[in-house]
Specification:
The structure holds three protein chains of three kinds. In chain B, α4 (91-119) runs antiparallel to α13. In chain B, a hairpin with a 2-residue loop joins β4 (153-154) and β5. Chain B contains 14 helices and eight strands. By secondary structure, chain B is of the alpha+beta class. Chain C is built from four helices and four strands. Chain C has helices at residues 2-11, 47-51, 81-85, 108-142; strands at 35-37, 57-61, 67-71, 92-94. In chain C, the strands form two sheets. A two-stranded antiparallel sheet of chain C has the order 1-4. In chain C, β2 and β3 (67-71) form a beta hairpin. Classes of the chains: A alpha/beta, B alpha+beta, C alpha+beta. Chains A and B meet through β2, β3 and α2 of A and α8, β6, β7, β8 and α12 of B.
Chain lengths: 112, 362, 145
């Protein structure tokens, strides 16, 4: 697994430079609660280089507005909508209530 | 001015096996827009795996995500835990994992095919496919000791060894199943009434499948060569046991049926090779280490690429476990696939896509 | 036409399904069935209890230190993890007998919650008693010196 650390405001730009839809395969977006901050991760696989997984990682605060990568990877809206519900983070244009109820309060996967 | 009607399909519907909801916007009979809602069965398994269960117990919990691909989930989790522990498992255990995974693929694909037949209005074929599927269920029961929840992979290897009489039973029964699958291929390929409901329905182009990051039989039916078994060699020796990728063109329901049927044949070949070339040795590797660091594992489940991410912190409990089910990646492609088809084709499209909602919502 | 002939032919064939209540279904000889405990061989290390994923095994402890094994077949998932973790072969084994269905009279869930609670309490009481005894012993040892 190749890990690339990025500042949060550079994520969309860097992924946009990296991602080509006929060369790379977007796997999923993930978030890990580190206690004081949240680490966001975007995973990509390569059609041409078998077995290689590239991970873009960025740190964020719980209340910060996180840029959406759907402008670059259109199919990422599913993963973003799931994380909004489960992690209680704020992602641009992501809809709430995809996995949990729309009026659900709290975030199950956060440690608090 | 066109009049649009919203027709809900689900969460409980006669053609749906799983609790998912679609809002189909139709113009006359044509579907023009789709909205999907998948979160009806969220059970919080990821949370439970990091708070309630020790990392060795998680491989049993994670099998309960889904009854059909329980082997895929337990194997993927066991692999990711072994990566965290830096544990190399014996070759025999790897071969036995492949055996269980491929038997599981046969029964899962046959279930999907039978539902495509049923939702296309061909009840007799549904019965017949289900009857033939029983053989693979029995083989799994003989191998793992249980009919649905196999619990076959554990952290460090597999739970039980393959007995010689079971190996013999698998080889003889597979021969019987092969002739039945050949008959099924004939029916699915050339039955005229089935072709009306399947050929050219729910088509997705190669470019769209790539753009929307589709995985599994859905992508392979559109000609995208995405199969994790083709990619990874480090965890399970797929190439050694004779894996070949199955590709089709067209991307419609018929192409997906063909991909599944041909994959059943490939799986049978793999199983025969595994049993004939099974190396001797132990089936489980012991360690007292605790999980540390982070790791990812990709595994080809029957429905496509399964992805597990785990992070350990040197305690009995994991810090984070993320499960990405194949159906989850396919939702964007799926929503796209409906558009332009007739409303009456929707059940067949849903079945051909083989949704597994308990995996998706977890 | 061919399909029609096959359909007519099928009328005279035996049913494809298994006549289940009258004929047995397939069951392998190493079916994962009920867990059996052998108190004679057991060394009471409680490793099975710690390994059990759903918590279907619990040991209670009397005041004299003897432990009793409790098992709930409705909670058990028959994974065999207890057997693999047992340091003494034969002390806990997996039989091929399927579990009988739980009946309403058994009150299997609520009574099990009660059993687990009592078992843990009995162990805590035993530990507290032992600690008290050890403290008294230590004091008794210190006083003469």
């Amino acid at each position: 697994m190749r890990r690339i650390d990025l500042p949060l405001d550079k994520v969309v730009e860097e992924i946009g430079k990296f991602y080509q839809f006929d060369k790379h395969h977007f796997i999923v977006m993930n978030a890990v609660d580190l206690g004081d901050s949240i680490e966001l991760q975007w995973f990509f696989a390569d059609y041409a280089a078998p077995g290689e997984v590239t991970m873009f990682a960025a740190r964020s605060d719980a209340s910060q507005l996180i840029p959406s990568i759907t402008s670059v990877v259109p199919s990422a809206w599913v993963a973003e909508a799931e994380l909004v519900d489960l992690m209680g983070i704020n992602i641009e244009n992501a809809k709430k209530g995809f996995v949990l109820e729309e009026d659900f309060e709290g975030a199950p996967l956060r440690k608090k | 001015m066109a009049t649009y009607y919203d027709i809900p399909v689900g969460a409980q519907h006669i053609s749906l096996l799983e609790p998912l909801h679609f809002k189909l916007t139709t113009e006359n009979e044509k579907i023009v827009d789709v909205e999907a809602n998948v979160g009806y069965v969220h059970r919080g398994i990821e949370k439970a795996c990091t708070t309630k269960f020790k990392f060795r117990q998680v491989s049993f919990v994670i099998g309960r995500i889904c009854g059909l691909c329980s082997i895929s989930h337990t194997t993927a989790y066991s692999q990711v835990a072994e990566k965290l522990l830096n544990l190399e498992i014996p070759l025999r255990a790897k071969y036995l994992r492949i055996l269980a995974l491929e038997l599981d693929r046969i029964h899962s694909h046959m279930l999907c095919l039978s539902h495509v037949a049923e939702n296309s209005g061909f009840e007799a074929l549904f019965m017949r496919t289900m009857k033939d599927r029983e053989i693979s269920m029995e083989l799994l029961e003989a191998l793992c000791g249980n009919r649905v929840q196999y619990d076959y992979s554990i952290v460090g290897g597999v739970a039980r060894d393959l007995r010689p009489e079971v190996a013999q039973m698998i080889l003889t029964q597979l021969k019987e199943l092969r002739s039945k699958v050949d008959d099924l291929i004939d029916i699915f390929q050339s039955n005229w009434s089935l072709s009306l409901k399947n050929k050219g329905i729910g088509a997705i182009s190669r470019e769209d499948a790539m753009r929307l990051n589709a995985v599994g039989p859905l992508a392979r039916a559109a000609g995208v060569p995405v199969d994790v078994r083709n990619d990874t060699e480090d965890l399970l020796p797929w190439k050694q046991v004779g894996f070949e990728i199955v590709l089709e063109n067209g991307g419609d329901v018929h192409a997906r049926n063909m991909v599944r049927l041909k994959e059943i044949l490939v799986s049978m070949k793999i199983i025969e090779n595994v049993i004939q070339g099974l190396p001797e040795g132990p089936v489980v590797a012991e360690t007292k280490a605790l999980p540390e660091g982070e790791a990812v594992v990709r595994l080809e489940a029957p429905r496509g690429e399964l992805f597990h991410y785990a992070k350990g912190n040197k305690t009995q409990f994991l810090e984070r476990l993320k499960v990405k089910a194949p159906t989850f990646s396919n939702i964007p492609a799926f929503v796209e696939m409906f558009k332009g088809n007739e409303y009456a084709s929707a059940p067949a499209i849903i079945a051909s896509y083989d949704p597994c909602l308990s995996c998706t919502a977890r | 036409m061919k399909a029609f002939l096959i359909a007519i032919g099928n009328l005279f064939k035996r049913p494809a399904t298994i006549q289940y209540p009258f004929a047995p279904t397939y069951k392998p000889d190493d079916y994962r069935g009920l867990i059996q405990h052998n108190p004679e061989l057991c060394i009471w290390c409680r490793r099975c209890e710690m390994a059990c994923p759903p918590g279907a095994i619990v040991f209670s402890q009397a005041m004299d230190g003897t432990q009793t094994y409790h098992y709930n077949r409705a909670v058990c998932i028959y994974c065999g993890e207890c057997v693999r973790n047992c340091p003494k072969p034969g002390a806990i084994i997996q039989t091929a007998t399927p579990a009988s269905p739980a009946l309403k009279d058994e009150n299997i869930n609520n009574s099990w919650a009660e059993t687990v609670k009592q078992a843990l309490e009995s162990r805590a009481a035993y530990m507290a008693e032992k600690k008290k005894q050890a403290a008294a012993k230590q004091q008794g040892g210190e006083n003469p010196a």
